[in-house]
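step: validate -> pass
step: tokenize input -> pass
step: predict -> running
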Amino acid sequence: MVECGVGLNFALPLGILCGQLAGVLSVEWGIQGMKGIFAACMLGSVFATVVGYLYGLLLNRLRGSEMMVGTYINFSIVSLMCMGWMLFPFFSDPRIKWAMGNGVRSTITLDGFYDKVLNNLLAFKIGNVTIPTGLFLVFGLGCLAFWVFQKSKTGVMMKVSGMNPMFGRSIGIDNDRMRVMGTILSTICGAIGIVVYAQGIGMYQLYTAPRDGSSFIPQKSRQLYPH
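step: predict -> pass
step: emit ->
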């Protein structure tokens, strides 16, 4: 979003929530291993594309106030999804639902599904340290994909549009389209990122966790490293 001239994405929880919803659905459907991660990433990308497109249209209408709008969207969408997690009717797996009443648990563990699947892929040890080779490969592929996109025609157009919208308009670049595209890509990155992150810590943490970074840290780690 910085590349396309919108500014910092303060509404990144939009993408995180898309990824979490897709991830919880993959658990509900019982998809395991790499297939589970792939399904969660693909479904989360579909959700994020729709949500990012709508959010991009909103930002185009409120040009100049993007970061303020993103802050409001951040707080409001997380609060709205807190109600959604309690009301969604399509979760029936007892590992997902509360033991009593309706609603989704605040923490969905990935044991038996795809807990640390990427971390353990081609992993090796150096002394007592385990190197998560698969996780590094995924991160490297993401960086490579972004670098290739920046060198592409669309990537260059997006960068020009973000740096100088008037010049971009003068050479025929649709600035609004570039802004929407950048917003969609940022939202997709958030959706895929939370799936990769969740498999690394072995759980999805829902409700206010997308807004509270400390909520992503497992409880044991918070006790060992309270700061």
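step: describe -> The CA atoms of residues 17 and 111 lie 21 Å apart.
step: cleanup -> pass
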